[in-house]
Amino acid sequence: MVNDSKEDLLFFARVCEKARRYDDMTEAMQKMIQADANLNSEERELLAAAYRGAISARRASWRSLCYAEQRVALDLTDQQIQVAEEYRTKMESELLSICHDILGAINEMLLPKASDAEAKAFYLKMKGDYYRYMIEVAPGEERPAVMDLSKHSYQDGLEIATKEMKASNPTRLGLAHNFAVFHFEVLKLPAEARQLAQKALDEAMAEIGANEVAAETDTVLHVIREALNAWKHKDFAADA
């Protein structure tokens, strides 16, 4: 990047996405936000893709390490346990850093500049998501406060989306789905999770009727159906 113009940063972010260099992609998007926090829909999607890519692999690695620790704990020496714990702590610090990075941008720059319901709901959904990811690795005494932040972000986003957006809007559907995941995984309330997801699905399908469904909407509807199917007979948290 020669001069860090908005066009150059967007181009570089797309290159990073194709190369799956998500840490570089988040850095480019942060620079762009600092220059102009009023993002259009394409730029918001790039921002979400950057942070989703940066955190997804780390979340999967952290979960794998936790599972491995539990399986072999009895066979490890004290020194080996310490090494594993230190490495897990390092991974947790990375996860928290990514979450703080995007949440800071949303709270301080993006939401204050959001001028329409679509943008506000989009950022509130991201807030709910990244506070939810923080819950996984936050120290026990901090979890209740982070849970409240996640819950209220989803609630605020859904309130805006329900009032000002169509039931088939993919951002509104995504908010409903992820809030349902929050109920299922975090609050351990599977019945409420199913109710939220089913309501969103029913309202969207009633609105769509026999009309053709946009590709993005169809994708989210498929995700909601998969979640409902997975949660059908479960009363415990599952991965999502």
UniProtKB/TrEMBL annotation:
Residues 6-240 form the 14-3-3 domain. The record marks R59, R132 as: Interaction with phosphoserine on interacting protein. Pfam families: 14-3-3. InterPro entries: 14-3-3, 14-3-3_dom_sf, 14-3-3_domain. Belongs to the 14-3-3 family. This is 14-3-3 domain-containing protein. It comes from Heterodera trifolii. The lineage of its organism: Eukaryota, Metazoa, Ecdysozoa, Nematoda, Chromadorea.
